[in-house]
Structure formats: structure tokens, C-alpha cells
Amino acid sequence: MPTRKQMDKLAAAAALGRNVPPGRPSEPADEIPPEYWQAARNDAAADHATACSGPLIQMQRLADIQRYLLRVACRRCGRIVEIQMADAVRLAGPQALWKDVGRRLLDETCTQRSGRLEEDGCLPSFE
Questions:
Q1: How confident is the model at residue 24, as a pLDDT?
Q2: Could you say which of 2, 35, 73, 112 is the most buried, measured as most Cβ atoms within 10 Å of its Cβ?
Q3: Beta-sheet strands, E only, within 1-127
Q4: Nearest-5° angle of CA 78, CA 66, CA 105?
Q5: What does each of the 127 residues of the chain score in pLDDT, given as a tens digit?
Q6: Contact by Cβ (8 Å): 126, 57
Q7: Residue 1 has what pLDDT?
Q8: Is 48 exposed, middle or buried (0-12, 13-18, 19+ CB in 10 A)?
Q9: Nearest 5°: phi and psi at 84?
Q10: What is the DSSP letter of 97?
Q11: How far apart are the two ends of the chain, measured CA to CA in Å?
């Protein structure tokens, strides 16, 4: 970070037009070909279709999840809790929703307690 004196010196030089770095052009030199835009649209549609094709992991039952390790993070305090699938099934049963199990894991060890019901507890982010 420049000092106040250095900033004043740069401002004076800019006012006189000396030692000023050239500005960026406001428009690109070349036009972007329409094939580029078509490819970008096609990729975005493909990404959206694959992202929306399967159910969200937090809405799946533990028996349906194929991962070995489950992770839930708190958006409020930044804490991350990981649990192995076998332990989660042992804890809550194979028919339990991962959303409920993850929320319970975070709430049992929550460190952000304010005393207000609306603000207490963690905000889970399922991974």
C-alpha cells in the first residue's frame, strides 16, 4: 500500500499526463465468432442437465448413498464434520435421510449459541 505522499505524487503525475500507464481499450480488437457462443451455450446446457438429473445428496436415504465418507459443514462457524457411511448407518439406521443425520451431528457439537432460537445452531452445507 503506497503512503499518502506517494499517492499524492501519483495523482499529480496523472493530472499532468506524465508516467500514466496506458488504459485498457473499451472494446475488444476482434469480434468473437458465433461458434464460440454456440459452444458456450451447449456446455452450459449440458452442465445444467447433469447437475439437475440426480437427487440432492441431503435428500437421499443413507442406504442409497454410494459414498464411503459423508461430510457436512457449517456455514455459520465453518466447522466440518465427517462420518463414515457405516457409522452413520449404525447411528441412525439405513432409512434415515442424510439431511437429518448431518443436522443432528452439527447441532450436538454446535459452538455458536446466542440464546435466541432463530440464531442458534449451525447452518448445514452437505457435501
A1: 52
A2: 73
A3: 69-74, 80-84, 124-126
A4: 35
A5: 778 888 888 888 877 766 555 555 555 666 778 888 788 777 755 555 555 545 688 788 888 888 889 888 888 778 888 899 999 999 999 999 988 888 888 877 666 666 665 666 677 777 7
A6: yes
A7: 72
A8: exposed
A9: -75, 150
A10: B
A11: 39
| pLDDT at position 74 | 83
Amino acid present at 11? A
| Vertex 114: Cα angle to 111 and 117 (nearest 5) | 105
CA distance 109 to 102: 11
Region of residue 87 (phi > 0: left; psi between -120 and 50: alpha; otherwise: beta):
alpha
Hey, what amino acid is at 23? Answer: G
